[in-house]
Known about the structure:
By secondary structure, the protein is of the alpha/beta class. Helix content is 36%, strand content 18%. The radius of gyration is 16 Å and the shape is globular.
Amino acid sequence: xxxxxxxxxxxxxxxxxxxxxxxxxxxxxxxxxxxxxxxxxxxxxxxxxxxxxxxxxxxxxxxxxxxxxxxxxxxxxxxxxxxxxxxxxxxxxxxxxxxxxxxxxxxxxxxxxxxxxxxxxxxxxxxxxxxxxxxxxxxxxxxxxxxxxxxxxxxxxxxxxxxxxxxxxxxxxxxxxxxxxxxxxxxxxxxxxxxxxxxxxxxxxxxxxxxxxxxxxxxxxx
Length: 222
């Protein structure tokens, strides 16, 4: 089986990070295609992307959410595997080689990157608690990697999932993996991303995540 990998990088206002992230992914053997999705950014993200060679760019004029950005890229994927990558990893995106180098483990599995311990205090764990308890409520199963945005998964399986358009996308992918007896393999990495703290902007961001995940949980219960 062809073990080539397509990396999908959704980006919203990531002008300072996106170039380093993509250039790091380019150094990984096995990634044969990179699709960057500008999700209605209000900064110079699209201009930065246009300056990067050998990538496919999808430009969404309106910010519809991370899940929508991923869905808009899927029709263009030509590989058997998809690597989902957050745009703010910068040089630490090279750590995705730990997933890509293990495509042979993908048979009915999904590889998920685990973050190291955060460098600063974030919120109060409400989003993590909701995601884990919601997952158990819907499947009687648990996963430690519900919220990680870094995943290596079969393209065909990902295309079958009715992805939500917002930050509930990782929760939904994890949920469908467990429902379909896909084994989730956690891979320890040293990736770093933009960590949220305890200011108003960060609390609003986590509040949006909480609402998005709660919406998926309620929808799945009905």
